[in-house]
Amino acid sequence: MQIKTPYLLFIGEADSTESAKMAIGIAHWRPENVVGKISFPNCKAKFDIPELGLRQAASLGAKTLVLGVVNSGGFIPNTWINTLLEAMELGMDIASGMHTRLNSIPVLVEKATQLGRQLIDVREPQPDIPIGKGLKRKGLRLLTVGTDCSVGKMFTALAIEKEMRKRNLKADFRATGQTGIMIAGSGVPIDAVVSDFVAGAAEIISPDADSDHWDIVEGQGSLFHASFAGVTIGLLHGSQPDAIVICHDPSREMMRGLTTYALPDLRTCMETNLQLGRLTNPNIQCVGFSLNTSRLSDSETEKIKKSIESEFGLPCVDSVKDGVSKLVDQVLKMNF
Amino acid sequence: MQIKTPYLLFIGEADSTESAKMAIGIAHWRPENVVGKISFPNCKAKFDIPELGLRQAASLGAKTLVLGVVNSGGFIPNTWINTLLEAMELGMDIASGMHTRLNSIPVLVEKATQLGRQLIDVREPQPDIPIGKGLKRKGLRLLTVGTDCSVGKMFTALAIEKEMRKRNLKADFRATGQTGIMIAGSGVPIDAVVSDFVAGAAEIISPDADSDHWDIVEGQGSLFHASFAGVTIGLLHGSQPDAIVICHDPSREMMRGLTTYALPDLRTCMETNLQLGRLTNPNIQCVGFSLNTSRLSDSETEKIKKSIESEFGLPCVDSVKDGVSKLVDQVLKMNF
Question: Would residue A202 be called left, alpha or beta, if left means φ above 0 and alpha means ψ between -120 and 50 degrees?
């Protein structure tokens, strides 16, 4: 599955900037893939890319209208349908990460079939994912792992891809979640894959490559999450990383969605990921730490970063505030 | 999902006794749930339960016709359809573990709808499996784990249930694979569950129970299998076992289906299962080892069992040849 670019980002009647997070993420990480946005008059999301009409977007070459907004329940309201139909008339495919599948709405399916357009539901894995083979592949891989869910694994991976490309290294972000897939234009929604095929899915998104090429694989979940560790270990085994970056939110006390589980300490998190990762890549190494310090003061943040760097002898950054150049320096220094 | 008993075991034109393994397993572990078998004249499977006609089976109270035979490809041949239709006419549901779904065959669906019969595809997980909660449940749980796939995890679990029941302990086998589900009459085909829900599936098959009740959970895969560890860790976390039994085939050198992976040693296998299992049950303990020694001589077998018992101070049995009473003795001795 490859979503055709450039995109027109649809944000409809988004009731806040937060609810347009996917569109904002795409525009931030792949501005070259975006012609503009389209919203309804009652839209409350603010972000700074051109507002376009459908015809205007089509004339600028938009190939896909991307639903870049979320609502509670993840449904596709009737108020959107005419816009989606007209976008298809003007030559665009439609891509969606909503729970309601585009392919479950007969009027959209009928129009798409008639015009030869694609309806791309990025929460729906492709049907032909193989069982993992466990064979060593060429090229280099970096996986972002974490103490918990939602601690910056996607952001960190995208930032590392960007920094590596800036240095003229060969690097490709490999998406495993819906927002990441929209940004990259391809990938596998790994938590929606049948459990027998998770490692296989991780293998196909990071295939054989040049020996100096880095796949930067978006991590999911945590080995320490009682609900989701199956997703995480499958991704760790299948992506056979040479390098891992540990992502962490130092302000979080309990695991996301679980009331009785504290976060693991960084040492345990690092060692367990390395231990289990060695199954498919005996040379796996940790290159550093990426923190989300948005809930901490500057002085707390500096103290925590220094403490981690001194304990592990590895760089520790807030990928948003500091960037990830220290992590990429470390990758180069470790000479993979 | 509860498959109604007693069963009529359908083995059609099984081309060998091996291909009727599922029917033989059901008849072995749940003779009280079987009225007999039905086969075609060219059937080559030999096993010793009454051959019945459909009407005869119905008059003996058969509630479900179970497809107890496998063929290459797992399809349902046209030659079976009339028998299945007639069984429904005579009051029976149909249960199948074939790849081809009963519910994908229009003539069966039509008849089942018309008569109010169930078409049960045991490879198809129920649709309403929740995300794992990770909350401690009452009652006791034993999980069979393994160095690899296909090393006797289902057999060992069923043997432990049988031995515990013989001693008037409260015990229920909890099935996670298709043959186990047919034997138990219920369960979840855990490797067919979407990866986000594997721990949740393990939680619902081993729910809150009396404090002296044992769920004996059928393990799947191996933490050391590069293709399937996601299934295994989800089952380990969700079933939150108090006790594990390590299953192993000492004659096997490479992991099943993988050409470049050796089996883990028993010490590493035990310690990794305990380490990861502690996330959801800090008191998890190993109670012993169950070997498949069918490819070894008697003297080799005795030597290996003695060596394991002396290394670990825990019982080691071949569950087929020796039974599992030493494992149940150990469970009682450890006073969970």
Answer: alpha
Of residues A195, A200, A258, nearest to B231 (C-beta): A195
Partners of B226 on chain A (C-beta within 8 Å) are 132-134, 199, 237-238, 279-280
pLDDT in tens, A193-207: 999 999 999 999 999
Nearest CA in chain A to B260: A135
Q: How much is the pLDDT for A1?
A: 76
| CB-based contact, B102 to chain A, within 8 Å | no
Inter-chain residue contact A194 with B196, CB threshold 8 Å:
no
Of B191, B193, B229, the CB nearest to A237: B229
The SS3 call for residue A172 is: strand
Interchain CB contact of B204 with A (< 8 Å): no
Rounded to whole angstroms, the Cα distance separating A32 from A280 reads 36
Place of tokens 């990426």: A290
Asked if A284 has any chain B CB less than 8 Å from its own CB, the reply is no
Identify which of B134, B224, B230 has the shortest CB distance to residue A230. B230
Tell me, letter by letter, the H, E, C secondary structure of B17-82: CHHHHHHHHHHHHCHHHEEEEEECCCCCCCCCCCECCHHHHHHCCCCEEEECCCCCCCCCCHHHHH
Q: What is the pLDDT of residue A152?
A: 97
Hey, of A195, A254, A259, A272, which one would you mutate to test binding to chain B, going by the most B CBs within 10 A of its CB?
A: A195
From the CA of B253, how many Å to the nearest CA of chain A?
Answer: 16
Q: What is the pLDDT of residue B97?
A: 95
ipTM computed for the complex: 0.95
Q: Yes or no: say if A14 and A45 are a contact pair by the CB < 8 Å rule.
A: yes
**DSSP label at residue A7:** E
Which parts of chain A sit beneath pLDDT 70? none
What per-residue confidence (pLDDT) applies to A72? 87
Angle at A97 between CA A92 and CA A99, to 5 degrees: 125
Q: Does A194 touch chain B (CB under 8 A)?
A: yes
Closest among A26, A215, A46 to A139, alpha carbons compared: A215
**Chain A positions in Cβ-Cβ contact with residue B136 (cut-off 8 Å):** 260
CB B104 within 8 A of CB B81: no
Compute the nearest-CA separation of A136 from chain B (Å).
Answer: 9
Is the Cβ pair A199, B280 closer than 8 Å?
no
Amino acid at B2: Q
Tokens of A299: 């002085």
The pLDDT tens digits along chain B (336 residues) read 799 999 999 999 999 999 999 999 999 999 999 999 999 999 999 989 999 999 999 999 999 999 999 988 899 999 999 999 999 999 999 999 999 999 999 999 999 999 999 999 999 999 999 999 999 999 999 999 999 999 999 999 999 999 999 999 999 999 999 999 999 999 999 999 999 999 999 999 999 999 999 999 999 999 999 999 999 999 999 999 999 999 999 999 999 999 999 999 999 999 999 999 999 999 999 999 999 999 999 999 999 999 999 999 999 999 999 999 999 999 999 999
Residue B1 pLDDT: 75
- Cβ count near B179 (within 10 Å): 23
Minimal C-alpha gap between A300 and chain B (Å): 29
> What is the Cα–Cα distance from A52 to A26, expressed in whole angstroms?
17
Please report residues of B whose CB lies closer than 8 A to that of A237: 226-227, 229-230
For residue A49, which of B310, A57, A238, B132 has the smallest C-alpha distance? Answer: A57
